[in-house]
Amino acid sequence: MLKIENLSVKLEEEDKQILNGLTLEVPAGKVHAIMGPNGSGKSTLSYVLAGRDGYEVTDGTATLNDEDILDIDPEERAASGLFLAFQYPVEIPGVGNMTFLRTALNAQRKARGEDEISAPEFLKLVRAKAKGLNIDMDMLKRPVNVGFSGGEKKRNEILQMAVLEPSMCILDETDSGLDVDAMKLVADGVNALRSDDRGFLVITHYQRLLDHIKPDVVHILANGRIVQTGGPELALQVENDGYGDILKDVA
Amino acid sequence: MSALADQKRLAAEALLSALPVPMEEAAWAHEVRAKARARLLDQGAPVRRDEYWKYTNPAKLSSPLALAEPSDEQPAAAEAFGGQPHARFVNGRLRQDLSAMPHVEGLAVSSFAEVVKQDISIAREVFGVLEHAGQEKVMRPLAILNTATATDGLVIQAHGAAGQVHMRSDLIGDGASVLRHLIRVEAGAELTLLESGSASNTVIEVDVAEGGIFHHIRVQSGARTPSASHIFARLHTESQFKTFTLSADGEITRNEVVLDLVGEEASGHIAGAVLAQDQSHVDNTVFVTHSAAHCESRQVFKSVLAGRAKSVFQGKIFVRDGAQKTDGYQISQSVLLNDGAEFLAKPELEIYADDVACSHGSTTGALDPTAMFYLRSRGVRKADAEAMLIAAFADEAIAEIADEDLADTMRAEVARWMSNRS
Questions:
Q1: Is any Cβ of chain B less than 8 angstroms from the Cβ of A73?
Q2: How close B86 comes to chain A (CA, Å)?
Q3: ipTM of the complex as predicted
């Protein structure tokens, strides 16, 4: 499904290499986790895949269902089924949540040659999805993420994911800023979306999120490339021993 | 006399000689006109070297232009604010055949051209009086020119609840159109004035009596001729004044709003949204005087600029000695959609009272790239994401409009501008 080969990326503004030949494949139906110390390139990977400005791909490829995604606009990547749950969801004053989400959904449907969803149908869809995430509809009447608590913002990300139904979900530090209860709620939302035709790439600094979203495969990212790959036990090893030993082994 | 003063006087003479002296008016009106001519000659026409015209070249706004010929042609259909105008002006004259004044209790509407032929006290108390008072700190020669030469307009007296008047001005062919509107909102009364179309020179004088409420909403859309406007308002005790102007493109537009809060607990709000592209130039110049204590004023201006468009904001809060507990606020912000666009802001405070709260702020920049990326990452197309952010930005000025339905008509105008944007 998501196939990243030898991806090398530097910052456009400064001559600083962030990713150095990263290779990774997430098949449909699987949850892959990427763990790594601060500065290892975790967020850069998620931004580059989603199409944020400011990065230059110097080498390598990334494809989603065999389609090259690095050369297309962020909105086209979204229409192709890619979704990034932001570490810091953006507040957009003056733009209503519902308007935003409906515009996004219809734009994606249109790009895929599907019919637009009607207002009542959309409302029904959002109501159903919001209920499971414990999001009340009043919250969604407010502008995008404005005045939301940290937990509300993350739940709103998962709600968008549930409504847009992407085939490949990237979660960037979705656990950051969440207490245990909020994390459980978010994880339940993610788990509800797990299916045979959907892949997940869960980027996290800590193991604790992986207690709730059980990964099939765990990768360790350091210095811009995958230095170790293993099963869920690898995350536990990081939790117990830190990154030090692993990084020493590969050095 | 200095060379500059000579130049200004000659330019004023040229301006006056291009326009006819109004005839067959009542003696009092004749006197107002004559005094205005003298004042304009004394003050001179605006020139680029005037500090008040530093950012907007007055040349096009003050070039001598003969009055547009009266026309009985049918102007283009003009829907604005979700309805037809009550009063339609074509080439500076009220077209009775196209107008249907609202017949609402507590609302008297008549033609300026008729009123200046009679002895009507409201007109005598307002015409030229507020304009003259508004010259105290800064010269506003184009407003004096209007006093001297205006051909028509509306005279509105509101003495009841919630009247609404929609007026529109069109130009067929070429020439100047000079409109003068006189408004008195009596104690406890309320009036909403809607204004669309454009004239080369418009002055509105508004006197809001104790506890009166005046709302003004104006759309200036794509005027192909230079347009200067002034609003002079005097706010008495506990009165409220709210004006909002949407300026979409237009060759060159200068809007001055001059408020004097003369009674305690009065409130004056001035807001505007500027949407400009190509070579369009829009100038909003505001002067708020706090003459009484416990008053509140607020200025909110938002500009969205593309192409080589320029938006100017000059906003001043002047607090007189004794106007304690004044609450004055001012914000002007712009979004530049490309490199060639320009926003110039000159906020000013002049305060002679020692117990006041006055603040001002100004920002300019591109659309927030993080917000753009967030929207696009969800599948929203780039142009739609831009439109959403621009609408949200302009909405902070539109939100100043009290009436939600009227605010929605302004939102529709913004959406229309966005979709027509080249």
A1: yes
A2: 33
A3: 0.96
